[in-house]
Amino acid sequence: MRRTTVIRAGIVAILAGAALALLGAGCASGGGTTGDSASPSPAGSGLPAAGGSSAANVVQAAPVRHVKVGDLSVGYRVIGPLAAATAGASPAAAGEDTPLLLIMGFSGTMDLWSPAFVSALAQDRQLIVFDNRGIGETGDPMNGYPFSQLADDTAGLIKALGYDSVDVLGWSMGGSVAIDLTVRHAELVSRLVSYAGDAGGSLAVYPAPKVMAKLTDTSGSGQERGERLLKLLFTESYRSSHPDYWKEFPAPTEMAAAKAVDLQGQAMGEWAGVWGDLKGITCPTLFVTGAEDILTPPQNAVMMTVRVPGSWLQRFAGAGHGLMYQDPQGLAEAVLTFFSVTAAEGDASG
Questions:
Q1: Which of 197, 227, 232 is nearest to 213 (CA)?
Q2: 59-72: pLDDT as tens digits
Q3: Range with the lowest mean pLDDT among 34-48, 197-211, 296-310?
Q4: Which residues contact 48 (CB under 8 A, 6 or more apart)?
Q5: DSSP state, 169?
Q6: Using DSSP, how many helices (H) and how many strands (E) does the chain show?
Q7: Distance between CA atoms of 107 and 72, rounded to whole angstroms?
Q8: To bridge 64 with a disulfide, which of 41, 222, 308, 343 should be the other Cys (CB 3.0-4.6 Å)?
């Protein structure tokens, strides 16, 4: 197993705990639940996140539903179109008909998405967020699996929800899952956005030694360790100008079982990657990176853009791995512009 892969990915789990400690928030127990399709979950009862965002309840206010996907009961939430709801119009009249599916990073639950980012994306379209296997509201068979299983689970979810294809956006490990999904289930992905993801294996660029040293530093109290790790999501200049930066990181309502996190980390560490398959991606593709991301270095996005024909690259100056918390509106505008232009190009060619 590649130690660098697992440690880099594990930052999300540690940061979630750090955010809870810093915010003084409570946390419900997680580890996967089962239930009937579309049945509300206690964790999806509308409790707002403890962060400082004005849109803090957009994600967590949406009820949790469940659908059977293979051996799993997958927990998911449906959000938007928010503009249609506000205006009293029907969802079909609100713009984009194609749903946007969001894939969360390593060990994170679906309520870790930036509420402001989700709110901006969901104004004119329907968004679907969900928990990967063994995490939060999704079933936990506690069996080892290859990394490709996460993409297969996502493909099964798309089909179980009755869609022929969806737009897909993944963050961090979720960005890698989105790439793997597009490579192996191309017919299900209309457009791809990989934010802070990589294509895995030995060709990927991993954190520098000094970053690794910070990730592995276990000195100090739990809160002190959490504060150190949370800083790695944001650039030093942003932290200096925004001393309350940590308030934009939402507190999760549930956490993942340690065994499930270990299995997910093992799957990541053993993934050979799909660099050689990138040239076969034909759907419109956008790679997004923070120019100062020290957890998934921006070289990964550049290398993937070179390999995927006609793909887009968006680099955000002064931003790190936590771009969606640092600049949710800017990130949303970049994604929505990509969707708008590629939709127009598709109409013109059709």
A1: 232
A2: 999 999 999 999 89
A3: 34-48
A4: 56, 57, 60, 61
A5: E
A6: 12, 8
A7: 17
A8: 41
Buried b (16+ CB within 10 A) or exposed e, 141-171: eeeebebbbbbbbbbbbbebbeeebbbbbbb
C-alpha distance across the termini of the chain, in Å: 46
Per-residue CA distances from 18 to 103, 110, 221, 226, 263 (Å): 22, 17, 11, 4, 22
pTM attached to this predicted model: 0.85
Structure tokens at 110: 């679906």
In the chain the beta strands, taken as DSSP E runs, fall at 65-69, 72-79, 100-103, 127-130, 166-171, 189-195, 285-290, 312-316
Q: Residue 226's pLDDT band (boundaries 50, 70, 90)?
A: confident
Q: At 56, which amino acid appears?
A: A
Instruction: Give one DSSP letter per residue of 229-294, joined into a string.
Output: HHHTTS-HHHHHH-TTGGGGSPPPSB---HHHHHHHHHHHHH----GGGGGG--S-EEEEEETT-S
Could you tell me which residues come within 8 angstroms of residue 199 by beta carbon, excluding any fewer than 6 positions away?
176, 179, 273, 274, 275, 278, 300, 303, 304
Q: Position of tokens 């060709």?
A: 203
Answer for the pair 9, 200: CB distance below 8 angstroms, yes or no. Answer: no
Sign of the torsion angle spanned by Cα atoms 130, 135, 136, 140: positive
